[in-house]
Amino acid sequence: MKIIYGADYNPEQWDKRIWIEDMKYMKAASVNMVNLNIFGWSILEPSEGKYDFSMLDELMELLHENDIDVDLATATAAQPAWLSKKYNDILPVDQQMNTIWYGSRQSYCPNSPNYQKRVKELVAQLVKRYKNHPSLKMWHINNEYSDHVSSCYCDNCAIEFRNWLKDRYTLQVLNERWGTAFWSQCYYDFDEIIPPRQTSADHNPGLVLDYKRFMSDSFLNLYKMEYKILKSHTPDIPVTTNFMGNDNKPLDYSKWAKTIDVISWDSYPDPMKDTSPMANSFTHDLMRSLKSKPFIMMEQAPNQVNWRSINPNKKPGEMEAYSMQCIAHGGFGVMFFQWRQSLKGAEKFHSGMIPHGGVHTRTFKEVCSLGEQLTQIKPIEYKADVAILMDYDCWWALEYEPGPSSKMKYMDRIREYYSYFYDQNIPVDIVFDDSNLCCYDYLIVPNLYMMKSPDKLQEYVQNGGQLVMGPFSGIVDESDTVFSDGYMSPLEDVFGLKVVGYNVLADLVSISSDLIGQNWQDEIDVDNAEILYVYESGYNTDQAAVTKHKYGKGTSYYIGTSFVNIKPVLDRIISVTSIDSPQNVEVILMENTYILINHNDEKKEVHLDNFIEPILLEAYEYRII
Ligand code: GAL
What is the Cα gyration radius of the chain? Predict the structure, then answer.
């Protein structure tokens, strides 16, 4: 399998003279695929039902003549102005019932019948026209679903929400699940139910949670609508849609992944945050894990972006280090936004592979050198013995405000545990509620506020797995109802304890072995678990902070607080092969290949067990050994 290398290509912004130059420089850069037609709709369909494919035909031919494959986009992420103007159900509506107007992009309601109708028609036209084109190697549906507008509250959404609910519950069950006896919210007819629009005070959390599920499904149905049309004509052409990073909360990617042939995502690490390489590495692991298959980094900036308040350049070599990180985590495609930096439009200060300064720039030189390197290497097969559980329902439910503490952020919890493995170069997979767990030595569950499948976790431990669970877990079932038998009650036997309450910590607490807890403290009543750490200050002094319990053939660990530094705790629990390296130097060992990446802007030495001499890496250098 070769590595895919290329970019979003937006030649509609340029005259044809430039297209010819583009072909020449794409070859110089070893580009082998472009994402074409991402925002092409208003050119393809200048008025309703009248199509003009002449420019796209020409481009497909040109790319074919130059041996460049096409990931052809369906162009449905930005509808033409005439369409938004003509059908007023298309524009989305916010919680205050204000229209979100056109004039930018991605401004459509996923449940708009007119948007759906025009999308269907356009996609059918595209697939019929290009299905046999030799350049067509992949379909790219829409662009970053839920970016900019992640939720709509209009009347069409209200109708579809009611249908979504009717498919799942009777009114009686719905009232029961949402606990509508609280604050006089009982429903006697589905028609009384409206989206969580602006209200006087807090919404019903059950409704809010179901609305998030519904919105993720609404965008997914839209995606599936296109997928079905494409697959009916081109069953063998893989289909992708580009996901966003790990902190993209609106879409349940684990559910989406089932109808996606190739996972791809857009990587824009924040250069102002020193956790950037780790955040990126986490998302690569997430994306690979979604289908347990190689994935594509569909977009990254060749240099700086334009859309944060301060947009520093990538340092010399940094972009290449990030690109290699994708390969090291099981990616098979490195692509950019975008090929040529725009002269006009909202992104004219966003870098391109060919920047405003042209082909004699550092950026283009780096792009060419990376392209050349990628022709020499093959994707790796990534394997991990440790898994971290992630669950979108749990994320959505945990962060409903007002909760006990806004400090209990779901992704912070995940990052706290993930960083332990990242820092020690221990490979990690991300798993989901329906994943097969049997082949993992350790299952790490940083938070499981919403516990949907306790039996599965019990079975995992019973069969010999080692389960490590973080605080504020086992609180509610999948309808967000608190377990009436007590927190953690579904897994009491597995952990050998009861959780009888919690404290939100305003101050730090001391814990045995000179450790410190913060933000949260579960009140644990130990049954037959062993106590590994106790609190040494505060009013839970001498009570268990961390426990261990042998159950079946396995072991479970409960960590009842958020540690300022969790490393000593996990060191005591986890025993897998790790590799020492300086901070932000990644070492990935798969089969017999080491990939070393220095994400620092200074040189670092790595001492590997099997090597006599230390390996010296210059700033941002990577090495494959
Ligand atoms: C992505 C988007 C691209 C481009 C890029 C700029 O989110 O998919 O179209 O806008 O950001 O960084």
Answer: 26
Residue in 45, 160, 226, 299 annotated catalytic: 299
User: Tell me, what DSSP letter sits at residue 400?
Assistant: P
Q: Whose CA is nearest to atom 1 of ligand 1?
A: 266
Sign, Cα dihedral of 590, 596, 597, 598: positive
Told to judge if 347 belongs to the known catalytic residues of this protein, a careful annotator would answer no
Query: Any long-range contacts for 504-508 (C-beta under 8 Å, 24+ apart)?
Result: 504/404, 504/405, 504/407, 505/538, 505/561, 507/538, 508/564
Which among 144, 226, 318, 536 is annotated as catalytic? 144
pTM of the model: 0.98
Q: Are 297 and 335 in contact (CB under 8 A)?
A: yes
Q: What is the spatial distance between Cα 167 and Cα 369, in angstroms, rounded to a whole number? A: 54
Q: What's the gap in Å between 299 CA and the centre of ligand 1?
A: 8
Sort strands 622-624 and 593-598 into parallel, antiparallel or unpaired: antiparallel
Q: If DSSP codes are grouped into helix, strand and coil, which group holds residue 265?
A: strand
Q: What's the 182 CA to ligand 1 centre distance in angstroms? A: 43
At 247, the pLDDT band (50, 70, 90 cuts) reads confident
In the predicted structure, residue 401 carries a pLDDT above the cut 90:
no
Q: Which of 176, 153, 14 is nearest to 95 (CA)?
A: 153
pLDDT in tens, 493-528: 999 999 999 999 999 999 999 999 999 999 999 999
- Parallel, antiparallel, or unpaired: how do β-strands 585-590 and 331-336 relate? unpaired
299 part of the active site: yes
Report how far ligand 1's centroid is from the alpha carbon of 306 (Å): 10
- Residue 266 Cβ < 6 Å to ligand 1: yes
How many CB atoms sit inside 10 A of residue 465's CB?
A: 23
Q: Is the pLDDT of residue 246 over 80?
A: no
Which atom belonging to ligand 1 lies closest to the Cα atom of 305?
Answer: 12
> For ligand 1, what atom is nearest to the CA of residue 268?
12
Per-residue pLDDT at 256 exceeds 90: yes
Q: Whose CA is nearest to atom 11 of ligand 1?
A: 337
User: Cβ of 117: how many Cβ atoms within 10 Å?
Assistant: 11
Mutation choice for ligand 1 from 12, 337, 340, 353, CB with most ligand atoms inside 8 A: 337
| Cis preceding linkage at 454, omega within 30 | no
Check pocket membership of 123 for ligand 1, CB cut-off 6 A.
Answer: no
CA diameter of the chain? 77
Taking the C-alpha atoms of residue 561 and residue 81, their distance in angstroms, rounded to an integer, is 52
How far is the C-alpha of 510 from the C-alpha of 516, rounded, in Å?
5
Is 80 exceeded by the pLDDT of residue 585?
yes
Give the CA distances from residue 269 to residues 273, 300, 334, 500, in Å, rounded to whole numbers and listed in that order.
8, 9, 15, 40
Distance between CA atoms of residues 301 and 338, nearest Å: 7
Q: Is 350 close to ligand 1, i.e. is its CB under 6 Å away?
A: yes
